[in-house]
Amino acid sequence: MSNMAANSSGPRDHVTLCVSARSLDHEVQLGERTAYRPTVRDLDYRVLLRFPQKVRNMGTADFLPVKPRHQWEWHSCHQHYHSMDAFSHYDLLDISTGRKVAEGHKASFCLEDTGCDPGFHRRYACTAHTQGLSPGCHDTYAANIDCQWIDITDVPPGNYILKVTVNPDFLVAESDFSNNVVRCEVIYTGIYIQTRNCIITGS
């Protein structure tokens, strides 16, 4: 298991991303919208690469959603409002050609202070009233959250690149978008995943 870190600095924020790839989960999807391809039946076994994600605000100003509050959407599965349509993208690429072989569902997100460094205090939560990421605090998405995975059911064993992109649609203003992406080498045996050589890249 390897950790990945990516940084993005801007006029309002400086975000750090940490992701850890986990062993595979074989799950049954019962007609969920997360089984989004037409070939997926109402009852189907899927192989999911799950991973937690932690995003930390290292800046001096709040990281705030772009959508106004009245446009936030209630997510019945997560039981809270989502204020951003796509905060991160997850892609699995062929290590030789760079071709995308699988991608994570581009789910919406809420923003909250899951935890904070010493001397900082939580001010935001996943509610209808206040969402954001305070300086010195982080937002964590656990690996068991729906959509926090890449469906690799049809991916053969081999070597790949796991690519994670923060602020992929450039909706939050930044002074430098060249360090918003992290790539890790992935070895997939068909039974387990191993990641290594994680680097920050511009794309």
Describe this structure in words.
By secondary structure, the chain is mostly beta strands. About 0% of the residues lie in helices and about 45% in strands. The chain contains no helices and 15 strands. The chain is globular and about 45 Å long. The two termini are about 25 Å apart. The model is unreliable at about 1-15 and about 25-35 (pLDDT under 50).
Report strand %: 35-45%
What composes the largest sheet? 5 strands, antiparallel
How are the strands of the biggest sheet laid out side by side? 1-2-5-11-10
List low-pLDDT spans: 1-14, 26-36
Sequence of secondary-structure elements: EEEEEEEEEEEEEEE
Gyration radius from CA atoms, angstroms: 17 Å
Structural class: mainly beta
**Average predicted confidence as pLDDT:** 74
Q: Considering DSSP H and I runs of 4 or more, what fraction of the residues is helical?
A: under 10%
The tally of strands reads: 15
Protein name: Lysyl oxidase-like 5b isoform X5
